[in-house]
Amino acid sequence: MRYWLLALNEDEYTEQQAYEVEDFEPASRPERVSDGDEVALAGPEGVFALGEVEGPAIAYRRRLEEPAKTVESAEAPDGWTELNPDAWEDLVRTLPTPERRSDWLVTLSMPIEAVDKAEAVRQFWSYIRSLGPKELPTFVAPYGRELEGTSFLLGVEHEQDPEE
Fold it and tell me: Higher-confidence residue: 60 or 147?
């Protein structure tokens, strides 16, 4: 088994942050990469997930709430970097402890002018599809504690002030 850091460019990173997917298939990979190898996925802000090579893809094993800057991710160029076992252990040790799963209330609402309810719903889904997670903020709150909610865009807290 080998250990790898895969640093994604900003576009690939943004795409991975937008949707909940089970795996990621990189455009290329070194010949030495094989099934069972462990991979830390990093974006511009640091490591955002850990995974395992399964065929042509990397299966996500753990995603971090926020990217974690590590020595390895700060120094890595875009693409694959092989890590020795000690460097891998250091990287994993610097990541935050996994959080316990909990329930969240995620909402999205927008005013839509329409003739009837059915048209309003169709327009709503058309807006969702056209704007997507890169442009459409959602409101996220711990279930039962809605007043603690915040606005998120692409999984990152986002200011909702119209002046911004």
Answer: 60
